[in-house]
Specification:
The chain has 302 residues and is an alpha/beta fold. It is built from eleven helices and twelve strands.
């Protein structure tokens, strides 16, 4: 999917008007929260151009003494490569960038540099000027931002990545789940990450938030997505346990159709409906198979 510098403000579908949803093409949604004391940009998109467009939206709110804060939910490129607008030598509007302490070393990993290099080779107009700027305020555990009228609570929800954070605003019972839940499902990067991700999903679902917004799901899908994501992985575990009890090897051949082996096609593990069927083929096949293999490996270890 080609990237774009376009950023649009998403029409409000009934959530609190102090939250603005901004969308970068078909890639990612990010958020701007306006409180009495602060304007909080939650994730900075993919480069300086998109980060500046978020700043343009935020500037309209930076009145009456409000200060700008930036939050990174995690260190994936579509959530933090716009940090250069707010920190480092490239900063246009310097502001504290709040993120997990586990995010900081991820910016220095060879894998991150190689990813940037590949993006620059494929789409130089989008990524050539990207400079890595990690969080400048490192969080370990929970953090409360007292905005006066609203409290923004940051809390770890690892699994998708080790450094992942979600945000909750209790006064309006609103949850920003970031990538802890997605349509059709979130992805763990490692086998060890899958149990943590499922635990994070259960934690978020148990909060019973009235409004839930995601970085990779329709704004109208609501809290039910948390339950649907949780149910998806529960079904995978049930099917994998049954298959192992029938004698299936917990480490099938790399060319095996594991969905068939455990009798769990994608269509059988997700809800019916348009949202779930109109997804990229990757989620139906490769991603689904990867989740099954991870589940089998976890059960093997247990």
């Amino acid at each position: 999917m080609p990237h774009t510098n376009e950023v649009q403000v998403v029409a409000n579908e009934g959530w609190d008007e102090r939250i603005v949803v901004c969308r970068n093409g078909r890639l990612v949604d990010t958020f701007i929260i306006t409180t009495q004391r602060y304007v909080v940009i939650v994730d900075t998109m993919i480069n300086a151009a998109t980060g500046q467009k978020l700043l343009e939206v935020a500037r309209e709110k930076l009145v009456n003494g409000r200060q700008l804060l930036v939050v990174n939910t995690h260190a994936d490129y579509d959530h933090c490569w716009g940090n250069m607008v707010f920190g480092g030598e490239t900063a246009i509007y310097p502001a504290p960038i709040i993120g997990s302490k586990l995010s900081v070393p991820l910016f220095d990993q060879p894998e991150a540099q190689e990813t940037l290099k590949q993006f620059q080779e494929r789409e130089p107009d989008i990524f050539n000027e990207v400079v890595f700027v990690p969080p400048t305020v490192q969080v370990d555990g929970r953090l409360l931002i007292d905005g006066g009228d609203l409290t923004v609570e940051l809390f770890p929800t690892p699994g998708h990545t080790v450094d992942h954070y979600s945000l909750y605003i209790p006064e309006i019972n609103t949850l920003l789940a970031a990538d802890a839940a997605e349509l059709p499902y979130p992805m763990a990067r490692t086998v060890d990450g899958l149990p943590a991700m499922r635990q994070s999903l259960a934690q978020l679902a148990a909060m019973n938030a009235e409004t839930v917004l995601y970085c990779h799901a329709p704004v109208t899908i609501g809290p039910q997505l948390l339950l649907d994501n949780k149910a998806y992985f529960d079904i995978l575990e049930e099917k994998c346990r049954a298959a192992l009890s029938r004698g299936l090897s917990p480490q099938p051949d790399e060319n095996a159709d594991v969905a068939q082996l455990v009798d769990c096609r994608y269509e059988e593990a997700v809800p019916k409906g348009e949202h779930w069927q109109n997804v990229h083929e990757y989620y139906r096949t490769t991603g689904h198979a990867q989740n099954i293999r991870m589940t089998l490996e976890i059960l093997r270890r247990d």
